[in-house]
């Protein structure tokens, strides 16, 4: 059996398939802000506070326009994974906020939560 499709129909199918493949190639943000809130409450809140303004001198204020959250997520992820000490910090942030059990997914989730909750000014 020899099937022939109109040229227009072939173009539509081809374009649809290309769009489908392209959409699958894009990075999907699967961060869970609700889980990020839990991670923040269990690991970060002691130093960064419930309002993100910091409880220890030199801890960055997450609400500040052009503040720490304006940095690229790769930089923020590195600071979370490896720890960080700012110029005005009274003490360094330990690697993974002192919680060695944090996973990459936990870190992605907490960053999504930080951006959604504090990065609004």
UniProtKB/TrEMBL annotation:
Asked whether the keyword Heme is assigned, the reply is yes
InterPro entries recorded for this chain?
Cyt_c-like_dom, Cyt_c-like_dom_sf, Cytochrome_c_Oxidase_Subunit
Signal sequence annotation: 1-27
**UniProt GO molecular function:** electron transfer activity; heme binding; metal ion binding
Top-rank taxon, per record = Bacteria
* Residue intervals of the Cytochrome c domain: 31-118
Which key words are in the record? Heme, Iron, Metal-binding, Signal
Pfam families per UniProt:
Cytochrom_C
* Protein name in UniProt: Cytochrome c, class I
Q: Which organism is it from?
A: Hyphomonas oceanitis SCH89
């Amino acid at each position: 059996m020899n099937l022939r499709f109109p040229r227009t129909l072939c173009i539509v199918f081809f374009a649809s398939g290309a769009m489908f493949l392209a959409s699958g190639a894009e990075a999907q943000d699967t961060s869970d802000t609700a889980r990020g809130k839990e991670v923040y409450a269990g690991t970060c809140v002691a130093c960064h506070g419930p309002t993100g303004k910091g409880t220890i001198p030199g801890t960055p204020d997450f609400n500040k326009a052009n503040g720490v959250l304006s940095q690229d997520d790769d930089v923020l992820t590195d600071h979370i994974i490896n720890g960080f000490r700012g110029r005005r910090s009274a003490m360094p942030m330990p690697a993974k906020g002192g919680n060695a059990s944090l996973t990459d997914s936990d870190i992605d989730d907490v960053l999504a939560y930080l951006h959604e909750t504090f990065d609004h000014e």
